[in-house]
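Cont'd.
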Amino acid sequence: MPLIVGMSVLLGCQFIGELLVRALTVPVPGPVMGMVVLLIGLMIHGRVPSALRSAGEGLLRYLTLLFVPAGVGIMVHFGLIGADIWVLLVTLVVSTALTIAVTAKVLDRLTRRRSGGGEA
Amino acid sequence: MSLAGLDQLWVYLSGNPLVSLLATLVAFYLATHINRLLGRSPFAHPVLVAIALLIAFLLLTGIDYATYFEGAQFIHFLLGPATVALAIPLFDHRERVRRMLVPILVACLSGIITAVSSTLGLALLLGAQKSVLLSLAPRSVTSPIAMGIAEQIGGIPSLAAALVLLTGSVGCALGPWILKTLRIDDPSVKGFTMGLAAHGFGTAQCFASMGAMAGAFAGLAMGLTGMLTAFILPLIVRLFGL
């Protein structure tokens, strides 16, 4: 039964998340709000129940598979992508490189300062 | 069985969820093997290979995407609970997160702002169409969240998903090289950076080649970035006047 219990918790949180998003009219996807709900629940409960862990980690292990059906949808947008192919490529490469450099530099600088200059 | 019989069987099957589901799983299985044969190159990531195989299969058999998705939506649906489940690794690392809370939050915010503004700025400058632009904006976030965001701000969710996958491959290819050039050695910093810039692809790569500590921080960055971007991005998009 652990899979059923775990899935029920995950779907339950997603359901509450969807309700909250609609009630508060915040521009956030329902599952993201569900993630916040689950995180708060885990903080209150103090540990991850084993049923929830087996269902959750099972899903996360195959996370890449779950992207496939939506990714195949790229075939519908070949025209749109083809028209902007160079824009997309340049933007993706430059912006990803910038993001990596900025994030790494900022975090590195801040954690060094915290640990008193020398990296432990 | 006569040829006409086979024909009718195919007409029946191609409209049935069974074919899409089976094809998706088989394509993913084959893609994992092809990726291993190619030395785990990020440009032949199993997801990209699986997508290419499936598109080829659909074009060859003449099944359109809407029909395919009717079956594959059962796999797609699991993205929702999987997103919720990202709370579990976040909770597991709550002690380390609490200790590094301020640096992590500052780094995460600067990373997100850099990612979103450089993406929107460059794409605007180079003259991308508006729907492409709005689908590009959430590209560094893990796809379930990116698709939700794209839908919220008026982009195309499936295009956003495809761009997220491309970002992941680009990040995995560039990341180790940039980190080396900047002389970053701390595995927690490396992991966090990869998770922020290249979401699930970066996280998987960290677990595979930089160790468990980097992997855990990548997972944390992926969850945190997803959550924060969902809140921040609509505001930045508004700033750009889109």
